[in-house]
Amino acid sequence: CLTHHKATLLFSLLTGHSLQCYTCRDLTSVDKCQTVENCTKEETMCKTTMYSLEDVYPPSGVSTVTKMCASRCEPSNVDDIGMTRPVTCCYSDLCNFNGAASLSISFVPVGILASSLCAFFWTRL
User: What Pfam families does this protein map onto (predicted)?
Assistant: First the structure.
């Protein structure tokens, strides 16, 4: 029926609501990236890039991230060996509250929305 991305776009268009993402464009520790940003119409997803402890100098011993609204986002392949900067993408408000877990959690409400829209349009035919 509708893909999760199209369903999110349709929901945003119907409600006039722009996506909100946590944003920190500079390397920030995961727990301190709390700034909320309203995305533009073209920015339909939240992007998170996790950095390995070796990427940060001086070493802090804390996981660091960059987060932002994005119009394009290419998620990392979780099977890549030696991946030091995994990227996750998600499509619902504030879905990028943490790193890797954001991807799986964000699809649940979108999937429910897509199923509801499919059922609604199917019963109208």
Answer: Toxin_TOLIP
Rounded CA gap, 10 and 125, in Å? 19
> Would you state the pLDDT for residue 80?
63
pTM exceeds 0.70 for this model: no
Contacts of 74 (CB under 8 A, 6+ apart): 87, 89
Query: Before 58, cis peptide (omega within 30)?
Result: yes
For the stretch 40-67, pLDDT in tens is 999 999 999 998 776 666 666 778 999 9
CA dist., res. 114 & res. 9, Å (int): 11
Task: Please name each of the domains of the chain with its CATH number.
Answer: 4-115 (2.10.60.10)
